[in-house]
Amino acid sequence: MVKNLYLIAWAAGSILAAHHAAAQDFLIRGATVHTASSRGTLKNTDVLVRGGIIVALGSEPGTSNATVVEAKGKELTPGLFGGLTGIGLDEIAEESQTLDSGMNFKSPEWDQQWRPELDVALAYNPRSFVVPITRIEGVTWTMLVPSAADSIIGGQGSAVTLDGRYEAVLPGSRSLFVQMGAAGAKAAGGTRAAEYMLLEQAIHEARATGPMTQRALLHAAGREALTRYLTGGRVVFQVDRAADILKVVAFAKRNGMSPVILGGDEAWLVAKDLARANVPVILNPLNDLPADFDRLGATLENAARLQRAGVRIVFSSGDTPQARLVRQLAGNAVAHGLPWESALAAITSTPADIFGLGASHGRIAVGQTADLVLWSGDPLEVSTLADQVWIAGRPVEMKSRQTELRDRYVEKVKTHQAR
Amino acid sequence: MIMLPRAAALAAAAFAVSVAFASEPFPSTYQVPPAPPTLIQGATVLTGTGERLDGADLLIANGRIQAVGKALSAPPEARVIDAKGKWVTPGLIDVHSHLGVYASPSVKGLDDGNEATSPVTSNVWAEHSVWPQDPGFETALEGGVTTLQILPGSANLIGGRSVVVKNVSGVTYQAMKFPGAAYGLKMACGENPKRVYGEKHQAPSTRMGNVAGYRQAFADAQDYQQQWDKYHRELAEFNKKKAERTEGASKKSKDKDSAAEKDLTPPSPPKRDLKLETLAQVMQGEIRVHMHCYRADEMATMLNVADEFGFKIEAFHHAVEAYKIADRLSDKGVCAAMWADWWGFKMEAYDGVQENLAMVDFPEHGCAIVHSDSADGIQRLNQEAAKAMAHGQRAGLTVTPERAIRWLTANPAKSLGLDDRIGTLEAGKGADVVIWNRNPFSVYALAEQVFIDGALKFDRAHPQNKPRSDFLLDGHSVEAPW
Fold it and tell me: Does any CB of chain B come closer than 8 Å to the CB of residue A322?
């Protein structure tokens, strides 16, 4: 408890320290504000930003000498969550030297080295080409995820802001990631049953006092890291099969973890249980094919059914270069029965809440960090583009390597037609 | 050997006797199913010819489009569909699909897309890998896809023949096979072949190795063609002589006749080589080349290779750098089949831009195609187009819905050589038609009804009638637990 309070105070301090001087005060006037909060959508509303924080929200919220951005009724949302990605960790999937999202010692299965102490956020590079390409589409933050290779525990990841700062981690968001299901079974000697066996062993080691046994899964730092998650820590389990989801939830609760389901293609089959256990699901609402034998129940209705049952949902494709398409995930979920507001929440406020950032991120509300996006139309519509993005109160230069490539070649194309 | 000048080579090819034996050893068994005439009334119709008609009707009968226009009348037995507020387009065509060859579920037993055992496998035919029970066909149908070209993967320089199918369910692929559609040949540039074979320490391991590989394969096919040409010449000569002797024999005495027969032996045909046979047919223009190629410089190289051997590349697929040579592709009449925004997953995809489709489309003869290469993407080709339209618009390249629909219909039909049969809503064309609940270039748009050759294959209002793969029968009943 003391630790959590410390983290929150530190978070607030670091945001102000980094951006107090740089962030300009401004007023967005006359926007259609999708707050992603209980206030819903506010028409013809002004948003005042000072020192990188939203300080007022309403009609003509106080006069000031702030710069004015005329929204003219355009739609404003919180900065979007890009999902669970390797943005700033992985550059080009096929080029291993550009990849930092996972550890692979290639150790034999019988001599596993579990390293839950790994925190991939340390590898984050804000100057990755992916960062501007993603943020000019309205995605202002993402959750960095370690990829599991050697063992079913990939390590830890944290949320980062995509405004380009070097110290980009959003404190309080650090989570542990565990690979379950068929993908985990591969690293657990061939059966998903062994995933629980090995996890039990690691937990036993973490809780044990005294010297470590030979053939231990964990080092001292790993024991310490894992212990932190056994008292309500957030553990993200990647798992799709309905039966596995229930097992994982029961296992996590039994061991003092707060589970989050990642994947969950069959989560709708156990929606009531998830709602009752208050376990959120991070899913890709486009998954509708029986892509493997863990996902035979995949359906485009997954998101809508979970929401109807009262399960909190978050959208993520898990794709790093295409994290920017998260709006398309949300829009399709709406086309298949999810209320529009729930779809927006699934890419704004719900991920912020789930990753411990709800007090500062994910909503347009007084006191929140000013991560904002002004859109050319309906924010969930594929034909809509971001007109302007702000992160922590600073306007993002709406430029990326891709817009520069476009500008270099587009004139050549236009003049060819004229010939 | 003296190389023939290009013109002479082409002329020789034009007169060459086909090397194909049974041209259709695996014939289509598809037949247009019986269906009542259908009148779709009062819709916004994107014809695929570049026209948009508001409040228009579409009359379908006998599997074909009979008329498009205002206030059409229908025969009394016709099914009449009120489509006010709805949009009607031609059925969507995906020129780059691996449905059936890389089926769901993704398991070893169904991994049949790449014969990655040799860099040139023009002897393999994708259709022999197609699993007709792939549930992806049904989800693609729900996305409005009525025709698709199924290709081998891109591990090889020359991966094999494609097959064009109608998106109808069948126990065999022959029941899906588009009657009379030309075969395609899958070729691949760049990283995939050089990676796959480089890792095996064999050629090609570089891009220069790739180009040497294509050229040698076609050079071998030229030689093969010449052997057959020679054989056919000798055979003709033999037949002529035989005829002359038979004629002569009737005039001369019978005892001389038997001696004369002895010196006349028929030529023996060369042994069939399935690899070279396919490539020879490519050079004769019977098989259409579809080439996986990302980078602009490699596409330019391949246009030279095609010229050298006298074949045409119908479309570059993926083509993430097509925008850099949009002018050249337009001048050459070569299509580019693209994603809206895929990029960055490998080095040759690093320069992807979201304006690619709009930029390729812009020049006078620009032929832009939206393709999927994905069991997920094929379900939302309309959304891919919508994204590309929006980015084009922002770059000053306006694309109207009536133009953009061509990226999904008329242009892919052209690249498949089927533009006289599908791809537009014109009288006489096959009645592949989609009724959308709204403007299809929206994330909220859903295909409500999908017709193939006039038969209603998907009806969102009656999901129980939709095709369902044998694989999906699971013996469980699900009580709505939500």
Answer: yes
Backbone angles phi, psi at B128, to 5 degrees: -75, -5
A92–B contact, CB cutoff 8 A:
yes
Q: Which CATH superfamily is domain B91-206+274-422 in?
A: Metal-dependent hydrolases (3.20.20.140)
Number of H helices, E strands in chain A: 12, 17
Q: Average of pLDDT values for A287-292?
A: 98
Sign of CA dihedral A308, A310, A312, A318: negative
Nearest to A312 by CA among A271, A340, A362: A271
Partner residue opposite B362 with nearest CB, options A292, A309, A417: A417
Query: CB B441 to CB A383 under 8 A?
Result: yes
Phi-psi region of A312 (alpha: psi -120 to 50; beta: other; left: phi over 0): beta
Angstrom distances, CA of residue A130 to CA of A322, B235, B344, B348, B394: 9, 64, 9, 16, 21
What does the angle CA B416 – CA B419 – CA B423 come to, to the nearest 5 degrees?
A: 100
Phi first, then psi: give them for residue A61, nearest 5 degrees: -75, 75
Q: Which residues pair with A386 in a beta bridge?
A: A375
* The length of chain A, given as a count of residues: 419
E strand or H helix at B302: helix B296-309
Q: CA dihedral in degrees (B298, B302, B308, B314; nearest 10)?
A: -160
CB burial of residue B245 (10 Å; 0-12, 13-18, 19+) = middle
CB atoms within 10 A of CB A373: 27
Sequence ranges of the domains in chain B? 91-206+274-422
pLDDT at residue A398 above 80? yes
Exposed (0-12), middle (13-18) or buried (19+): which is A70, by Cβ within 10 Å? exposed
Q: Which of B105, B351, B444 sits opposite A292 (nearest CB)?
A: B105
Facing residues of A32 across strands?
A75
Inform me whether the C-beta atom of residue A334 falls under 8 Å from chain B C-beta atoms.
Answer: yes
Examine the pLDDT at A194 and tell me if it is beyond 60. Answer: yes
Burial of residue A270 (number of CB atoms within 10 Å: 0-12, 13-18, 19+): buried
Could you tell me where the DSSP H helices lie in A177-315? 181-187, 193-207, 220-228, 242-254, 271-277, 302-309
pLDDT tens, residue by residue, A37-71: 999 999 999 999 999 999 999 987 666 678 999 99
Return the CATH number of the domain spanning residue range A2-406. 3.20.20.140
DSSP of B14-65: HHSPP--SSS-SS-----PPP---EEEEEEEEE-SSS-EEEEEEEEEETTEE
pLDDT tens, position by position, B61-88: 999 999 999 999 999 999 999 999 999 9
Residue boundaries of the structural domains of chain A: 2-406
| Exposure string for A319-351, b = 16+ CB within 10 A, e = fewer | bbbbbbbbbbbbbbbbbbebebebbbbbbbbbb
